[in-house]
Amino acid sequence: MDQCDAHLLIVDDDERIRGLLQKFLLRHGFITTSARDAAHARRLLSGLEFDLIVMDVMMPGETGVELTRALRETVTTPILLLTAKGETEDRIAGLEAGADDYLAKPFEPKELLLRINAILRRVPNEVAVDTGPKVLSLGPVRYDVARGEMWKGEEMVRLTATESALMRIFSAQPGAAVTRNKLVEDLGRDGGQAQERAVDVQITRLRRKIEADPKQPRYLQTVRGEGYMLAPD
Fold it and tell me: Which residue of 96, 110, 112, 206 has the lowest C-beta tally within 10 Å?
């Protein structure tokens, strides 16, 4: 996706921060709209489509994590959470709710820009894949490699941008283990144990959409000492 075409929704209860983020992102070619809280964001989302949501976690009323969890019931728009909390548990809670990434405050504006562009690059493109199988069977679930779509029977399975990116990575080499470090790299993230843990959380979420029993995965397997592997029928 061309970042100049991207429309971002900024959700933060701090008016000063909203203004600063909007000015910074506008200077870098983004279209931006802002919301002062979760309720305002919901109203905007009901009438507009966005390419990415940049949202503060600590807001009065409905928090960013709570809104993320609710939105994931109906939308797959990528979500980047901003949090003043540095504890791993808080970051993991955001990822488990369905966020694509997180950034702890205070942060450098350049880092925010890098994270946004990395997430936008994960959004599936309408490009056909010419090599390998076109459709992978994962029990009752099928994954259309060319379209980047997952189906269970006649119902499409909603995938977040990060989940879509993971499926593209795995489906490019079914039956081969991919290391956690390689997944972090391919997702456009900086390295480190925290990011590897974040990938683990995204794998857990993806398994819930694929596996009959996510705790005993048949199709998205853990390969001890090597990483993760997609093992279609």
Answer: 110
Q: Are 6 and 120 in contact (CB under 8 A)?
A: yes
How far apart are the C-alpha atoms of 121 and 187, rounded to whole Å?
9
- Residue 125 phi/psi, 5-degree rounding, is -100, 155
Residue pLDDT, tens place only, 27-40? 999 999 999 999 99
Check if the beta carbon of residue 46 is closer than 8 Å to that of residue 20: no
Amino acid at 87: E
C-alpha to C-alpha distance for 196 and 191, rounded to whole angstroms: 7
Residue-wise pLDDT for 7-55, tens only, equals: 999 999 999 999 999 999 999 999 999 999 999 999 999 988 899 999 9
Instruction: Report the distance separating Cα 13 and Cα 30, nearest Å.
Output: 21
Vertex 89: Cα angle to 85 and 90 (nearest 5): 40
pLDDT digits (tens, 9 = 90+) for 62-80: 999 999 999 999 888 999 9
| 105-141 pLDDT per residue, tens | 888 999 999 999 999 988 765 444 444 558 899 999 9
User: In this structure, are strands 141-144 and 31-35 parallel, antiparallel, or unpaired?
Assistant: unpaired
Interatomic CA distance for residues 212 and 200, integer angstroms: 19
**Which residue reads 């809670």 in tokens?**
93
